[in-house]
Amino acid sequence: MKSLLKPDARFAPPATTAAPLPFFTVDDLLWLLYLYPLRFLAAAAPVGLIHSTRGLFALRARKRKKIAAQRMLAAKCADIARDLFRVGLCLTILESLVLLVLTPFYWPLIGIR
C-alpha cells in the first residue's frame, strides 16, 4: 500500500531547464514609451518646453479635423444624412402642428385655462 503523504510521480510537475524570465523586456519598454510619452515629457522637461509644444498638437488637431470633414463630404451616404435631416424636420413641423391643434382641447381636462 502506498503512502498518502508521498507524491505520486504521475502528478509531479515536469522539471524545467529554461532560463528564468526577465523582469523587464524590450516589449515592455516599447509599451511604456507608447502609453506614457507625455507623462515622461512633463516630468523631465521644463515648463517652457511643454507650453511651446501646444502649437504642434493644435496643428495636428486642425489637420485631423480637415481630413474628417473631407471624408464626411466624400462619403457615399451623404445623401442618406440629408434625407434623414429632411424627414426629421418634416416630423418636427408635423408634431408642432398637431400639438397646436390638440392642446387647447386637452388643457381644460387637466385644469389649465
Brief sketch in words of this structure:
The chain is an all-alpha fold and 113 residues long.
Order of helices and strands: HHHHH
Query: How many angstroms does the end-to-end distance come to?
Result: 98 Å
Major sheet attributes: none
When the domains are counted, the total is: 2
| Silhouette | elongated
Strand content: under 5%
Low-pLDDT runs:
none
Structural account:
The protein starts with 25 loop residues before the first helix and ends with a helix. The model has no long low-confidence stretch (mean pLDDT 76). The longest helix has 33 residues, at 78-110. The chain contains five helices and no strands. It is mostly helical and 113 residues long. The chain has helices at residues 26-35, 37-44, 47-52, 54-74, 78-110.
Summary tags:
single chain, 113 residues, mainly alpha, 2 domains
Which SSEs are present, and which pair or pack?
Layout: H1 26-35, H2 37-44, H3 47-52, H4 54-74, H5 78-110
